[in-house]
Structure formats: structure tokens, C-alpha cells
Amino acid sequence: MALLAAIGLTLSACGGGGDDDSDSGSSSTDAVITARTTEPQNPLVPQATNEVGGGNVIDLLYAGLITYKDDGSQELEVADSITSDDNQLWTVKLKDWTFSDGTPVTAKSFVDAWNYGALSTNAQNASYFYYPIKGYEAVQEENPTVKTMEGLKVVDDKTFTIELNQPESDFPLRLGYSAYYPLPESAFADIKAYGEAPVGNGPYKLDAWEHNKELRLVPNEEYDGARKAQNGGVTFVVYTDTDAAYTDVQAGNLDVLDTVPDSALQTFQDDDSVQAITAPGSVLGAFQFPSDLPGFTGEAGKLRRQALSMALNREELTEKLFFGTRTPASDFSAPPMPGWTDEIPGNEVLEFNADEAKKRWAEAEAIEPWGNKKLLIATNTDGAGNKASVDAMSNQIKNALGIDAEPKYYATFDEFLDDRDNNKTGALFRAGWQPDYPSISNYLGPIYGTGAASNDGNYSNPEFDAALAKAAGATSDEDRYQDFVDAQAILMEDMPGLPMWYTDGTGAAATGVENVKFNWQGVPIYQNITK
């Protein structure tokens, strides 16, 4: 039997601190922790959320079948067992568990939530994550005749089965991601209204959400899992200016800041008014091309995408803008992931080479002249490093290729996301990626798989999709990792996006705040923080 157990499947560490929440070294207190966030893009429904502002809150409101420890290893949470004889038909048995309103978490709570998330007419951002399940294609049709996936079956209140399209030995690894969280039956009466006042099953519950101001979370007395709150609650304060958030940490008006602004990167580790936090990072900083961006389609477009990549001096950008807190990217994933390698065929396209960039741009000109077009690079400015990096990228492209390149700014993350998700940026756009579960697959499929949830550039290549499918069905880690290399080699040729850098976790805490550590995603472990 294949069994995902608390002591079994362990991945390479990439966060700070211990791997068990019970080792925080601090007793519970009644103090409420304040932390910086951005305004969530959507109502707080797990299946609708694929951005950090909503995601960090949802991860505290809900509990999945498994949970990820600080270092990315896993342990069972709501699941009592997840087993399979063939890695294709999985049986899930649940522990006794309740939602924050006291109603039971049942097999139906998971099956109904996943079916809701997968159905095309519900237009949920996380729908792509159900693609391995048998029947996913049928519910993804434009006008589906069936509403539920064939591969999900409720056996009894505490048991359900998951049949996949093909054997996937690492399928349970992703079951701690928010797309796989359960929903109570009450959610489906009015899902939008539910998202404003969700009923979760995690360590916290939502007390109030004042839009564009704050989200107040309080401990969930019904929760009895591995992530028990060690504080009196977490209040996420919405900031549109990271500098203002850093100033508030210095003054003791904000407890935790999950990212350091450009202005403080050079000095924050020596700033006596804050506690500096650093950790190896799994976040990939990148930019994506809309597939229909004028001048970047067809063979000429591919050459131009390659030229832009080689016109960018990543070493200079990371050194001068981020003072060693970011590392130039050499692939489309990140070093902490199991099986990572920088030996990807074609990845010389990520190295600065002004002469080769000019050559490829000239080859594109011979096919389709650029004319008087302007290249826009879109980003939100309420995140650390975004404005400075886009300014610098624009200048590097101008200098190397002699074309008109300039930033396109959005004041807030949710405004940027709305245009990005609806293909309205008309620009090369920022597309940083914080992994959802610890696998290279999570960096490739959701962003570049045909029709994937976060494939906002609408890239599609059947050869790439086939390489990902081959990796999913691999029977050994060695084969799977090689399949990832093959898939990335295709991306190096097509360059649908520009991997730029791996971002270390950097943050700050006010003096007097204790137990502030980052997990494998580069996110503060909020439930452990005390003061």
C-alpha cells in the first residue's frame, strides 16, 4: 500500500525554524498580532483564490487533508489516512473534525468543494488543480452536460475515493493546497455572500473584514489540529505602500511585515528598531507575455521574447536593487524544490548577452518589423521591489535593443490582477510565483499548462503539456525530475515568460514580537507568533 503518513514523505527544507508547530518555545497569549497584507482580490473562497492577499488568510481559516510543516514536509491533518494500491485509485479516510460553526467536516464537504471548484461555469481560479481527477475534462467544457467529476465518490461520511486519469505516486503531495480545502454545505446557498463571512475548519475564524482596511482573525475553538494558534488572533492590515508598513514596524504600530521595501533592503538587517528576518526563498520573480501581445506572436515573436530575455542583466538587477536578497534565475522553478537543477538545455537565454539579443531582434525584424510600437511592462506598485525593478528593466531593454520600453503602473495588487486576469494589460506583466505545494510541477503546470488557472498569458504548447503529463505519471523520482528538465527545455525555446530571480524571504518584526519565522513558501508562520 502507498501511504501518506506523518512520518513518511519529506521534502528538502527551504524555510527557517523547526518542523513542528509544537516546538515554538512559547506559550499561548491573548495578544493579537498585526501583519501587513494586500486587499484580497476575491471573496474568501479557497477555490476562487490564487493570490497572496487572500491566500494567506485562507490558509489560516481552513484545514486540508494534509498540512505542510515549516520545512515543506507533510503530515496528515483532516485525513486519517490516504492510501492506494496502484497510485491511481486513492482512498481517503477522515478524522473527526468540525467547521467553526460546529457542523461536521465530512467526505461530502471535500467532494462537493472540489466539484464546485472544477466546474467551468463556476469560473473558479483554482479549477486547474483538479486536472488529474477522472472526469475533469467533462466538467470543464464550455456548456458541461455533467456537473461533477466521475473520479470522486463518497463512500460514507468519513470516506471518499479519488480516481485519477493515470497513476500519480505524488498526487497526495498537493492535497494541502487551498484548492483542496473543504466547504460546509451552507456555502453553496450563496457562495459570494459566504466568501464575505466564511465558515472554515482551520486554526482561526474570520471575525470581521473591513475592505481595503483590515481582516480580523480570532482563534477557532473548534480546531484541534497541528497548527493551533499561539496568540489571541491575527489582524491583517491592508497597505498599498510597503514603505509605510515598514515605518509602522519601526514605530511598533505593526507587528509583522512579510516583505521589506526597496528603500530598506540595504539597511534593514542593521536597523535596531526592527527585528530583521531572512530565509532561503522558494519564490520565483518572473514576467509573462500575453500570447496575443502585438509584435510578440509567431516566429518573430519567439525571437523577440528570447532577445528581451538576453537584454536583461539579472546579475546587475539583483545586486544593485536587492543587495543580495535575490539570485538571478536559471530556470522556471526555484532551488529549494526536490529535483532542482540549473542544467536546463537552452537556459543560456537567461544570461545577459547584448550582442546576441541584438542579433535575435534583427532576425525578428526581417520577419516582421517592429515599427513604432512601445513595449509596456506592467506591475502593481504596492509590493516591495516591483516599481524599482520594472523601471530598471525598462532602461536595460532600451539600452540593449534601442526600443521604446516603459513601465505601466497599477496602484494596488487587486487592480493589477483584474486587468491581468482579463488580458487587459496590453503589456509584459509581472508574474511572481509563490509555490502552492513543494514540487517543480507547481511552477510549471499552473502557469504554462494549456488552460491552467494562472496561465494568464494563455500560452499553449501540446509538446509541453505532454512533458508535464509524462512527469506526473513517472514511477520514479529520477524519471520525474528528468521530465521536468525536458519540459523546461521547451519553455527555454518558447520563452512565454521571463524568469528573473529567486527571492529570499525578507521581513521585519517590531521589537517585543517573538517566534517570527518563515516557512518553506517564504510566509511568516502566523499562528506561532506571540508578543
Can you walk me through this structure?
The chain has 531 residues and is of the alpha+beta class. It is built from 13 helices and 18 strands. Strands 12, 13, 14, 15, 16, 17 and 18 form a 7-stranded mixed β-sheet that branches. Strands 1-5-6-8-7 form a 5-stranded antiparallel β-sheet, covered by helices on one side. Helix 12 (462-472) runs antiparallel to helix 13. The longest helix has 18 residues, at 477-494.
Count of DSSP strands: 18
**What is the share of helical residues?**
25-40%
> Approximately how much beta-strand content do the residues carry?
15-25%
Contiguous uncertain segments of 5+ residues:
1-28
Q: Structural class, from helix and strand content?
A: alpha+beta
Silhouette: globular
Q: Kindly report how far apart the N and C termini lie.
A: 45 Å
Largest sheet features:
7 strands, mixed
Radius of gyration: 23 Å
Overall mean confidence score, pLDDT: 91
Output the number of helix runs: 13
Briefly say what this structure is.
This protein has 531 residues and is α+β, with helices and mostly antiparallel strands. It has helices spanning 52-61, 107-118, 136-139, 191-196, 242-251, 298-311, 314-322, 354-367, 386-401, 413-421, 441-448, 462-472, 477-494, and strands at 2-3, 33-37, 66-68, 74-76, 79-84, 89-94, 152-156, 159-163, 204-210, 214-219, 234-238, 256-257, 274-288, 326-328, 374-380, 404-410, 428-430, 497-510. The protein contains 13 helices and 18 strands.
Please supply descriptive tags for the structure shown above:
531 residues, alpha+beta, seven-stranded mixed beta sheet, 13 helices, 18 strands, globular, disordered N terminus
